[in-house]
Structure formats: C-alpha cells, structure tokens
Automatic annotation (TrEMBL):
Keywords: Membrane, Transmembrane, Transmembrane helix. This is Post-GPI attachment to proteins factor 2. InterPro entries: CWH43_N (IPR019402), PGAP2 (IPR039545). Coiled coil: none annotated. GO terms for biological process: GPI anchor biosynthetic process. The chain crosses the membrane at residues 40-62, 98-117, 137-159, 171-192, 204-227, 239-258. Residues 283-295 have a biased composition (Basic and acidic residues). It comes from the Eukaryota. It comes from Plectus sambesii.
Length: 309
C-alpha cells in the first residue's frame, strides 16, 4: 500500500515532461537577467562562514570581558571557558546579531535556487534507478527538506533563546535534522542519478557529500548527548565538546552548500519573459509538435544537444 501511494503522487514522467516543455527557445523569450550559478554558490555557501568569522573575531577583540563572564551568570559558574555557544553572539549580543542578520538576508535568497536547480538536474537523469519508487520518493522529498532547512535557519536567527527558549531550541533541533536529511537525500541522488560518473571531479564530490553526511550526523549525535549532560552536571568538558561541535556543524553546512560551485561550472540561471504564447500558433497539435521537437533536443541532465551529436 505505501508503495502504491508513492507511485500515485510521484510521477517522474509527468514532472520531467513539464520541466522540459518549459525550456524556452531563443526566438521566443527575452532574457532580463542571466548569470553563472557560481556567484550564487559563493553567496549561499560562504556568506555564513564570513558571518561566523565576524561574530567570533568581534567578540574576542571587543567583548573580552563579556566572554569571560557570560557563563558564570548561568547555573554553571564553575565553567571558565571563553568559547561562547554559537547562539549567544549570533542571536543576542550586539552588533553581532545585526551583522549576522545581514549575512542571512543575503544568504537565503540564493538558497532558493538549490532545491530548484538540483531537483531539475536529478529529474533529467537517464540512470537505471530513475524509475524506482525510492528514487521518485527522494526526488519528491529533496526540495521539501531544503526548504525546511532554510526556514529553520531563519527561525533560529530571528527567535533567540531570550525571546522564547522553547521555540529557539526546537528550531535548532529542526535545523540539525533537516540539514542531515538534506545531505543524505542529496548524496543518494548524486550517486543514483549517475551524476558522479560525469567526471573525476563529480566522482570526488560524491564521496565528499557522503563523508559530509557521516560527519554531520556524528556531530549531531555529539550535540544531542553533550548538551543535556552539560546542563545537568555543569561539566566544562561536555560544554566545550558541545560548543566545538556546534561551530563545526555550521562549517559543514557551508561547505556542503558550496559544492554547487563545482557541480555546475557552466550552468547559468536567469530571469526571462517568454513570448511563445503571442508569437506562435497555440493549437493542441502545434503545442504537441513543439514539445516533441524540444524533447528530442534535450540530452540527459538538461544540456542541449549540439548539432551532429
């Protein structure tokens, strides 16, 4: 029964056909904005790292006294660590919170392209796995886990622990879960779609993404164990382990999303206006003929076939 439900709601052929039929032809659309996807990858992947670096460096340079006393004001005054939990400087302390919000504002819009670009890319695969129920399920799940990861990141940033600790903690947990799910689904699709066989670099990235899932999941388990242990026992070792795992998790997140810089070296994204409806006969027969002609000229992974190939 579950397999039948998946097959009913996840129709790869329908999705792929729709996607291909939306590819515009040069004579019928006007490009308003076009860019390589690499600048988008830099903004989406590296801006959180830049924000993290600013938050940490500013705290150690201009807020040394606060770093030495912030934990003593809690229920664990015996902890003398000067490494703050990542949520303190990013979500509470000023001006770090303001600067971090600016980086997030610039970081989030490019992230929207991740789910769209990779989903379309994986849909165009001609791998032997593309007709299996689990591949269709992963295709269905991928844009959702990407979106939920982004939403949970926004909530962690906007709702700090002083405003509402329960919501902040739940958002942190959701962000960790969604990122690990995102990496897992993405890594499986990268392998199953045959993407890893495109080049030596793509093959290396497949192993990197698989390793990123293993390490991110390990860090998530470390945080899950050490945080409640630190709160219960006020162990400085447990606190340091948790804090370091937090920072490493953020770096893993940025490194994973930056891989699109290498996945799509020649892919462009753009904003265009399609004038097909005004310039051509739109009868059912004409639409079918145009769609069939267009699909014949689309190679796997969405690249247009070159003349003579």
């Amino acid at each position: 029964m579950p397999l039948a439900i998946v097959e009913k709601f996840i129709d790869r052929e329908k999705w792929t056909g729709n996607l291909k039929s939306r590819v515009p032809r040069p004579n019928n659309h006007e490009v308003l904005l076009q860019s390589s996807i690499r600048p988008v990858s830099v903004v989406a992947g590296l801006f959180p790292v830049f924000g993290l670096m600013f938050v940490v460096v500013y705290g150690y340079v201009f807020q040394a006294e606060r770093l030495s006393t912030y934990l003593r004001a809690t229920k664990c005054p015996n902890i003398t660590s000067r490494l703050p939990p990542i949520s303190y400087p990013m979500g509470i302390w000023q001006p770090q919170k303001f600067i971090w919000l600016l980086f997030i504002i610039m970081h989030v819009p490019p992230r929207v392209f991740y789910g769209i670009t990779y989903t379309r890319f994986f849909l165009r695969s001609d791998s032997k796995f593309t007709n299996t129920w689990w591949y269709r399920f992963f295709i269905f799940a991928y844009p959702w886990v990407t979106l939920l990861e982004m939403i949970s990141l926004i909530m962690v940033t906007v709702i700090d622990q002083e405003s509402c600790f329960q919501v902040h903690a739940s958002s942190c947990a959701a962000f960790v879960i969604m990122f690990c799910s995102n990496v897992f689904v993405h890594a499986v699709l990268h392998w199953a779609s045959g993407f890893k066989n495109k080049s030596r670099l793509a093959n290396a990235l497949a192993y990197f993404k698989a390793g990123c899932f293993v390490s991110s999941f390990t860090l998530a388990m470390i945080m899950l164990v050490t945080y409640p242990y630190y709160k219960r026992t006020c162990s400085e070792e447990a606190y340091l382990t948790f804090a370091i795992a937090e920072y490493m998790f953020v770096i893993h997140n940025a490194a994973f999303h930056f891989t699109s810089y290498f996945d799509f070296p020649k892919v462009k994204i753009g904003l265009f206006v399609d004038f097909t409806e005004f310039n051509e006969d739109n009868s059912t027969e004409k639409k079918g003929a145009r769609r069939e002609s267009l699909e014949k000229n689309i190679a796997p992974y969405g690249y247009e076939k070159q003349p003579g190939n």
